[in-house]
Amino acid sequence: MNRIDPDFKEKLKPFGVGNWAECFHCGNCTATCPLTDESHLFPRKGIRWLQMGLKKKISRNLDPWMCYYCGDCSETCPRDANPGELMMTLRRYLISVYDWTGISRLFYKNKIWELGFIVIFALLIVSAFFIFLPPDPAIISNPGAFINAQGGVMINSLSTGLGNEQFLRIIETGDLIMAITVGLLLISNIFNMWYKVILSDPDTRVPLFTYVKEFWRLIIHFAVQPKLSKCDDKKYWLGHFLLMSGYTIMFILIVGLLPKFQVENIYPWYHWQRILGYYATFGILLFLVNVFIRRIRKNDIKLQFSHGSDWLFIILLFLTTVTGILIHILRLNGNPLATYYIYVAHLAILVPMIMVEVPFSKWSHLAYRPFAIYFSALKKATAEKAMKTSLATAI
Hints:
68% of the residues lie in helices and 0% in strands. By secondary structure, the protein is an all-alpha fold. The protein has 19 helices and no strands. The protein has 2 domains: 8-98, no CATH class; 125-382, no CATH class. The chain has helices spanning 8-12, 28-32, 44-52, 55-60, 63-66, 72-76, 83-98, 103-109, 111-132, 138-141, 164-199, 208-213, 215-223, 234-256, 258-261, 272-297, 308-332, 336-360, 365-394. The radius of gyration is 24 Å and the shape is elongated. Helix 8 packs across helix 9 (111-132) and helix 11 packs parallel to helix 19 (365-394).
């Protein structure tokens, strides 16, 4: 039974719903969208359910994740209902639905919670460094002791009384704890998504073989997001790909390959470590600067309405990237004291961004969207198989 919640639209306001003119379901948005198909008639269907207060239907619905916010629907809407932004609102709402901890809902309902978590994590990181890993006093009295043969700063030797291996081991242990914590939170939220979309649907019973057969879709859509390339604005797909690939590369280098990435030696520019780092930095900065400019100018329909979570994510990612660049420059120029302080600042931004944004806010789109496409393929394959079985039985 699908109960109607007459106050549902009011409850969605913290997630982004504004005072746009009401949609009267002309169908223009669905007809215009290059991504809609017979399985997913969005944005119209989702907006209708929103207006009717069908909260349970929306919680099971994958349509909002099929939308990449090309902006075509909002550009052509005769009532200025802004269907693209309404779909964005539903995605934020679904993040809070999948999150079993309830933290996402707190963040979206009141930005003070999200800012508070970010500040607390940042203060914890700074405090931990100055209490347990303070800068070696010799950095000031004998800075040359921290410079390697190539003239660069030995970053793992900057803390008091610790050898480079010991310092790196402490950072790597903290890195691993953070990765496991975030991974468990995000994976458990995805399992909750699977439960709501697949397991609790009485009409869908997916065989194990189908999970294996359709798994390639999850990999492909996570890696290159081919559906986004169907939008008219090809530059947006390219920018999004650069951001996605750059962020993923840096995440793997920092979280998974830290001992090979944070080394004492300064490798030549053509070394794989530096090439990957430069590519990731270029991709992230290019996209972020472009988004900053377009959000401020508001000359693009999909960037005219900015939610607080949008700004927080891009600001944190921008500051993380800039401090990472500064660490690299200071290391190359042989400035150990400044390298230490910027390194602490870098982690004080990076850790809150990963701990808050990955499982609970904007970044989680990168995980939920490919899983939504995967789950949609599972439902479609199961329905087609059931239809064939039914026809064969009838014959």
